[in-house]
Amino acid sequence: MSISSLHLEPIASARGQITLPGSKSISNRVLLLSALASGKTTLHGLLDADDTRVMQSALKALGVQLENHTQDQESVLLVHGCKGKFINSSADLFMGNAGTAIRPLTAALAILGGDYHLHGVPRMHERPIGDLVDGLRGIGAKIDYLGQANYPPIQIGFGHLLLDQPVKVRGDVSSQFLTALLMALPLTAHPRDICIEVIGELISKPYIEITLRLLEKFGVKVVNNDWKSFVIPAFKNAQESIYSSPGDFWVEGDASSASYFLAAGALGGGPLMIKGVGRESIQGDVAFANALAMMGANVTQGHNWIEVRGVDEAGLQAIDIDCTPIPDAAMTLAVLGLFAKGTTRLTGIASWRVKETDRIAAMECELKKFGATVSSGDNFIEVSPPQKWTIPKGGVDTYDDHRMAMCFSLAAFGPVPLEINDPECVSKTFPHYFDELRSVIVCSK
Predict the structure, then answer these.
(1) Integer angstrom CA distances of residue 282 from 26, 211, 278, 304
(2) pTM of the predicted model as reported, rounded to 2 decimal places
(3) E-strand stretches of 171-268
(4) 327-381 residue pLDDT tens
(5) Are 225 and 312 found together in one domain?
(6) Running DSSP on this structure, what letter comes out for residue 391?
(7) Catalytic status, residue 328
(8) Active-site entry in 50, 51, 285, 328
(9) At 147, which CATH number?
């Protein structure tokens, strides 16, 4: 049964241990790479949520064989690789609102060619894809817009690829466009090196680092020229698949999701331990732990865990920080601005505008409901804590954005009760988030 809102009483403390769900960014990348590789890949710890289900449904529609089974009391997914070319050359693919699914699939399908219709929910048709399409069209791929130019839905056909010139893509809107090209262009099995040139400043570099490290796991080592260009090596053996399965692959816990519990450990006193990510994580959002420490939290890290034990005696302090490397976890910092002494200023967040919702506008609106003083621009937000907390009238709206719902659950560490509207939107990446939160908190009443 659908729940329209969730009531949260003020939270008095938070302590315990959480094992994170798998990383969305890693899960959808390895699903596609496993599908395109030669051999079978067993995926351990794969995220089970809306976005990964979208990717799996699309892969099945393309003819990829996926098998769920249990191994050593663990649920795993066995992916039968298609050796660089999907079995079905035509398909109607519903992509929901999963950016990590539609962008790389668009690139892969455009490189391979076929008769493919990609579409999603209304918000997906408001999320730009034009820079990726321009880059693909520039090398001869055939992609048509079926609605507004530069946005899904799109139709992919058979193009004639020309790879003698560098492939150009903008880097300042979404790193997913570059990720999509990095994953798709090796499928050409081109006998000469392929160069991708980034136009403008590349944002979210840690997400590109994830892509590069996963490509290497599947047999392709890309040369990174100071984030300005990337070279995919020539492929000499046309008889073999460019991607090869690593056999078994373990997905890290989701570092963006870790931010909510790390913040809870700071606000609620802890100790609260997060298992699944640590100091050796390949995800950029693990740097949230460092930002939290800058605000005064007591943070310790191990290989595969992070623990927070409240904050220093001085309390939580506001910070001024460039969040370009941690765009998703930065939302948690904005909500922590409700509790920090001073004005918290977050910059490098322009990509918030093109996410599941316009997160800059949404965050400003909802923070003000608590009495906070908030200002924002195209690439920043500033938050000063309430002089007097107010109960959000009409509840906290979540805009069908999973991260809005999870971030604002932390506002319950304040002195007022609140309602979170449409809490089930967390199913996009963390279906059991509120159950996990309840397992580590004690409310005031």
Answers:
(1) 9, 10, 9, 11
(2) 0.91
(3) 194-199, 223-225, 229-232, 248-250
(4) 999 999 999 999 999 999 999 999 998 888 999 999 999 999 999 999 999 999 9
(5) no
(6) P
(7) yes
(8) 328
(9) 3.65.10.10
